Model the fold of this input.
Amino acid sequence: MTNPNANVLNAYYLKPIRDTRKSFYKKAYVKEWGRYKELFSYNTKVAVVCIDPITRVNEKLVLGSHATCSATTLRHVREFMYQQGFETYEKKDLYKHYEMGNF
Done:
């Protein structure tokens, strides 16, 4: 069995900056893999940011099918979007502005 974190360059718990909560209590974390940053909420991948390899600027946000499944997960997603420089929208409009991934 292989280690699922073998190629992770950096991993950290998401900390609220814009959100009014003091903490997300280790329920949301980010893994960085080369050109990608993945957000996990309650151990479920809910969003991925693709990074341009030349400029190292966040290029594209892809939301998973569980990104809006609960109010708390949506808080995690919005905080991640804010911290990565993406515009946040109402729940009903998120998938109109961002691609939906198959995860």
Helices lie at 71-84, 94-97.
